[in-house]
Write a structure and sequence with these properties.
Strand content: over 45%
Radius of gyration: 14 Å
Helix content: under 10%
CATH architecture: Sandwich
CATH class: Mainly Beta
Order of helices and strands: EEEEEEEEE
Number of domains: 1
Distance between the termini: 43 Å
Shape: globular
Number of strands: 9
Largest sheet: 9 strands, antiparallel
Oligomer: single chain
Amino acid sequence: MQLFRFDQLAGRTIDRFDSVNATISRIMRTPGSVQIGCIHLGEAGVVGYHPAVCPQLFLVVNGEGWVCDEDQKRVRVGPGQAAFWTTGEGHESGSEAGMTAIIIEGEGLDPASFMPQIDS
């Protein structure tokens, strides 16, 4: 067995898009260009508004916060909930008290094939 870390201290600061109090710990990248990482948002943390470079699934695993898309209307999210953005879709995420999310990015992602949707 091997043990690995993906906590906040193992990550790097996200400093693009006017982000605040946000880090990302890279977990893996497959040969097919699927990337997996863990976003850590601290108090008043924000990953600033930017377009998705490819389909992106944002899976909240701890804490709570908000996500938005191009309409910039904030939607509350918590553990066990996910947001999905398509290629080019503008989006932002943040938290007042802190939130941790696993990020999966890559072509061919289709969470609607497997996960139940939340009515908005």
